[in-house]
Amino acid sequence: MTADPRVARRAPEDLDEFQRAERHPDFRVDLERIRFSPYFSRLSAVTQVISQSGAGLAVHNRLTHSVKVAAVARAIAMHLYRDEGPLGELVTELGGCDPVVVQAAASSHDVGHPPFGHLGERALDRLARDRFRLREGFEGNAQTFRILTRLDEHDVSGAGLNLTRAVRAAVLKYPWLRGQGGTRRGAASHKFSMYVVDADDAWDAFVAYPSIARGQQTLECSVMDVADDIAYSLHDLDDFYRAGLLNQATIAGEFREWRREGADLRALDTGSLRSVSRAPGHSLELLWRRLEERDPWIADADAFDAAVAKVTEEVVEGLLTVPFDGSLGADRALARFTDGWIRHLQSSVEVHREPAHRSGHVMLDQTAWHEVAVLKFLHERFILDRPDLAVYQRGQANLLERLVDGFAAWLEDPLDVRRAPRRLLDLVDLATEDYLAVRRDHPEALPDVDEAELRQRALGRGVIDYVAALTDAQATHLDAMLTGQTERLWESGQGL
Questions:
Q1: Residue 265 phi, psi (nearest 5)
Q2: Considering just the CA atoms, what is the radius of gyration of the chain in Å?
Q3: Residue 485 CB burial class (10 angstroms; 0-12, 13-18, ≥19)
Q4: Which of 330, 361, 387 is the last residue of a domain?
Q5: Which residue intervals of 383-450 are DSSP H helices?
Q6: Are the C-beta atoms of residues 87 and 94 closer than 8 Å to each other?
Q7: Does any domain span residue 443?
Q8: Beta bridge partners of 350
Q9: pLDDT in tens, 268-301
């Protein structure tokens, strides 16, 4: 076993001559394991924001998003890795920033996302808590860590892909259990990156980072996090612009009225703003108040105003004034726009020895941070809030509920449980083993839980693990099968 704690695994690796010649061959092994994983491949059929079938054109899915996050993250990491001045010394002091570790984390950061995007995440979280009394519910980031370290086995039983500490730590975007981190105004963040059954593995990863405070991302993780924000803010805008879903007049009205009626809007209480949030200018003012409340350590009224002005000029009164017509010229114009923004945001990265609360060691500067927030607002307000999308998503939530209830009922049927999908049974067995280990090693984490209740929770975790690993199409097909609405029994690639 290598002496470097960052590359520690559960078992030594057999490396070929080419790999031995690399500085950190273990990190390259991790990246290849992730990219060859079926969980990574399935991302090509998992919704990013809207599905390809729903949009009627090729939009980003979780795989293409992850590939682009990895590209953005690598460029940032290379800049930090190559610096030989004070910045490079700080990077080394904080544990290092290996570009391959960053690529591995960026490639894998979304493998835990369930079918149907964030809608699926919310639906499974509710079902986990209400149906199975799993207090931690479901969270895509925590599911990512569980897949990499437990569910997607490679060469060592029980060790998942058997990744190095560096890569395991780099995917812990919210390095705490549910309810234990990211507090603001007395309320805990709903985001977290580990379930109680996977916590020991997570804390073990941080052994290699004595300079990183508890509850903080590693430097490599924070590079991935920043890259995710950059990619999300721009590539979804790309999708909706190409699809013709961003109405320039409506968006221009929102931005114009916010600037024109700013003083009157600031005088309104938040409740009044929300009651008429669809009136022009009101949603943008609500965005500012949300930033000011959640992130007072960086939110600044002048910086927000400048960000609104920049997005107005370059996006609302620039890009969106010329509808995308599918021509080569339109492709070139959009590529120039996207490339310019990515370069601008990548060059706005800062490294801090002691970052503010709820931020990473690597972060966007104050100007760029507000710009990303305003860019995200465009599709959050004018796409995600659309009533037609809401109707579609409610149907998807109902589908996931039928799947969870159907598989749970199957496992609880003593006369037919033996015919349940083998992988489902395996996942329940793994979850049962994990919960029994927690009760044995950390009884304080499961207070007043008897064995019958523990096994019921394990059944629930196994069902959730199973459904969360489906693609959009697999979920739809299995729902039709369980409800008797299809005669296509042997659909290929279902992974039952």
A1: -65, -40
A2: 23
A3: exposed
A4: 387
A5: 387-411, 422-441
A6: no
A7: yes
A8: 363
A9: 888 888 887 778 889 999 999 999 998 898 999 9
Whether 53 is covered by a domain: the verdict is yes
pTM: 0.91
Residue 190's pLDDT is 82
DSSP code of residue 141: H
Q: Are residues 320 and 413 in the same domain?
A: no
DSSP tally for the chain: helices H, then strands E:
23, 2
Lowest mean pLDDT among 13-27, 67-81, 142-156: 13-27
Q: Please list the residues that pair with 184 across neighbouring strands.
A: 187
**pLDDT at site 184:** 44
Kind and range of the H or E run holding 326: none
Number of domains making up the chain: 3
Could you report the per-residue pLDDT of 12-66, keeping only the tens digit for each? 555 554 443 355 789 999 999 999 999 999 999 998 766 555 544 556 789 999 9
| pLDDT for res 53 | 56
Going by C-beta distance under 8 Å and a sequence separation of 6 or more, which residues neighbour residue 21? none
Contacts of residue 366, defined as CB under 8 A and 6 or more positions apart, other chains included, come to 298, 300, 303
User: Are 159 and 29 part of one and the same domain?
Assistant: yes
Question: Do 468 and 138 touch, CB atoms closer than 8 A?
Answer: yes
* 210 token code pair: 């004595």
Query: Which 3 state secondary structure label does DSSP give 36?
Result: coil
* Three-state secondary structure call for residue 8: coil
Q: Which helix (H) or strand (E) holds 476?
A: helix 472-482
Mean pLDDT in residue range 173-180: 93
DSSP H or E segment with residue 33: helix 25-35
Residues 320 and 461 grouped into a single domain? no
Domain hosting 332: range is 223-387
Q: Among the three residues 220, 248, 266, which one is the final residue of a domain in this structure?
A: 220
CB 423 within 8 A of CB 495: yes
**Residue-wise pLDDT tens digits, 384-429:** 777 777 787 888 999 999 999 999 999 999 999 999 999 999 999 9
**What is the pLDDT at residue 489?**
64
Distance CA 391, CA 382 (A): 15
- 59 and 192 fall within a common domain: yes
- 456 and 336 in a common domain: no
Q: Hey, what are 48's tokens?
A: 């990013």
DSSP one-letter code for 182: S
Note the pLDDT of residue 278: 78
Same domain, 214 and 94: yes
- The answer as to whether 101 is a domain residue is yes
Helix (H) or strand (E) segment spanning residue 468: helix 451-468
Q: Is residue 464 part of a domain?
A: yes
